């Protein structure tokens, strides 16, 4: 979302600059084209506008890391290695997460059983009693 908002702001700024440029130019009587009293001034405005657009494009490309992504796609060994490491990390993270959540649930169930609630105690003793017998 943030990238789209930045691009939208840049597009609006460029449109504002274009409209300012058109306001500074006067419409000539022949041909209906915009011209200025001083063509150098118009060239300078166009040059400045082009430089700002190039800077915005350069900044956008730098933020999007397109170069790094292209290099990664070009090197299949590096891509495979990064995906392998990412998969192992996710697997370990999921394992740790499930272990922690299961431990918390077991502790909560033990606390509930110690409260001597008859229905829950019967269910717990039925399943845990079967495990203890084996």
- Mind describing the biggest β-sheet? 2 strands, antiparallel
Q: Report the end-to-end length measured between terminal Cα atoms.
A: 57 Å
Number of strands: 2
**What strand order characterises the main sheet?**
1-2
- Work out the oligomeric state of the chains in this entry: single chain
What is the ordering of alpha helices and beta strands?
HEEHHHH
How many domains is the backbone divided into? Answer: 1
Shape: elongated
The SS-based structural class is mainly alpha
Give the radius of gyration: 34 Å
Helix percent reads over 70%
Strand content: under 5%
Mean pLDDT: 78
Provide structural commentary.
The chain has 134 residues and is mainly α. The protein has one domain. Helix content is 84%, strand content 3%. It is built from five helices and two strands. Strands 1-2 form a two-stranded antiparallel ribbon. α1 packs antiparallel against α2. The chain is elongated and about 95 Å long. The relative contact order is 0.05.
Précis, in short:
This protein is mostly helical.
Q: How are the elements arranged and paired?
A:
Elements: H1 2-24, E1 26-27, E2 34-35, H2 39-64, H3 66-74, H4 76-114, H5 118-133
Antiparallel strand pairs: 1-2
Which features would summarize this protein structure in a list?
two-stranded antiparallel ribbon, 134 residues, mainly alpha, 3% strand
């Amino acid at each position: 979302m943030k990238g789209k908002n930045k691009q939208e702001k840049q597009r609006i700024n460029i449109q504002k600059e274009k409209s300012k440029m058109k306001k500074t130019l006067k419409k000539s009587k022949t041909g209906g084209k915009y011209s200025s009293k001083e063509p150098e001034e118009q060239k300078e405005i166009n040059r400045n506008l082009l430089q700002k657009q190039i800077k915005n494009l350069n900044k956008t490309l730098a933020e999007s890391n397109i170069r790094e992504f292209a290099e990664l796609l070009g090197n299949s060994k590096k891509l495979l290695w990064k995906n392998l490491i990412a998969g192992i990390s996710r697997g370990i993270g999921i394992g740790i997460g499930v272990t922690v959540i299961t431990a918390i649930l077991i502790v909560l169930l033990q606390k509930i059983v110690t409260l001597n609630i008859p229905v829950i105690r019967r269910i717990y003793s039925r399943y845990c009693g079967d495990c203890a017998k084996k």
